[in-house]
Amino acid sequence: MDEVEVVVAHSERATLRVGDVFLKVDADQARIDAEVEAMGLVPVPTPRVLWREPPVLAIAAVPGTALGRLGEPSPASPAAWAAAGAAVRKLHDAPLPPRPGAAGRDPGAAGRDPGALAAELDAECELLVTTGVLPADLVARNRRVAQAAFRPWTPAFTHGDLQITHVFTEDDEVTGIIDWSEAGRGDPLYDLATLTLGHEERLGDLVTGYGTEGGVDLDLDVIRAWWSLRSLLVVRWLAGHGFDPFAPGCEVDVLRSRM
């Protein structure tokens, strides 16, 4: 009998693996609905849905290996990263989905109102300093860098939580992109920033595959702004849900690299 592996678990959702089957348990049925709908619309490889029995979604494992993990060097080749960039470009060029996206912790998931997001960021920065989580100069510097993300942009079909562990490749080809619960209309540069968070040295390979032509204004300063913005917003949440944003190469190191 296959063992049950806990992939991730916190108070909002949990993902278990049993053999080649992933069981996603989510208290918010809207996230599961959004995930299944998105996987049926996107022009990129996704996991196969096996069955649904709320609050559980069962999906098949995708072949290949993830591009890497946050806090560790990526073992994937430059060609694999370029292939990932080409797949993300295909997603961003797809027709806009009917849903605006899930309003989760990921700041770019729903293409959120810039004013509301800026207000949330300011409040979070104040808490990071007053509670002693991060030094004031580190927070202030990254808040200035993050400002570049607040600019006019054209919505695209975005994944919304495109972490490095969510893109799988094999033989330098993308075999699957997983975890679509935050998918919707959003800022395409947020996807590129999330995928390269903590792996700045891979941004060039990703951009090579993504390309510079088309409707997306590929501003690298905005991608760097999203690195700061996303990290500032999630540090306290991660620490409170069993994750370690202070681990080498993770969110706090991303903030320190902007200094």
Descriptive tags:
259 residues; alpha+beta; Aminoglycoside 3'-phosphotransferase, Chain: A, domain 2; five-stranded antiparallel beta sheet; three-stranded antiparallel beta sheet; globular; Aminoglycoside_PTrfase; Kinase-like_dom_sf; AGP_Transferase; transferase
Explained architecture:
With 259 residues, the chain is of the alpha+beta class. The chain has one domain: Aminoglycoside 3'-phosphotransferase, Chain: A, domain 2, CATH 3.90.1200. The chain contains eight helices and ten strands. The protein has helices spanning 29-41, 78-92, 114-130, 136-146, 188-196, 203-210, 220-240, 251-257, and strands spanning 4-9, 13-18, 21-26, 49-53, 56-60, 65-66, 156-158, 167-170, 173-177, 184-186. The strands form three sheets. A five-stranded antiparallel sheet has the order 1-2-3-5-4. Strands 6-8-9 form a three-stranded antiparallel sheet, covered by helices on one side. A hairpin with a 2-residue loop joins strand 8 and strand 9 (173-177). Helix 2 (78-92) crosses helix 6 (203-210), helix 3 (114-130) packs across helix 7 and helix 7 (220-240) packs antiparallel against helix 8. The protein is globular. The mean pLDDT is 91.
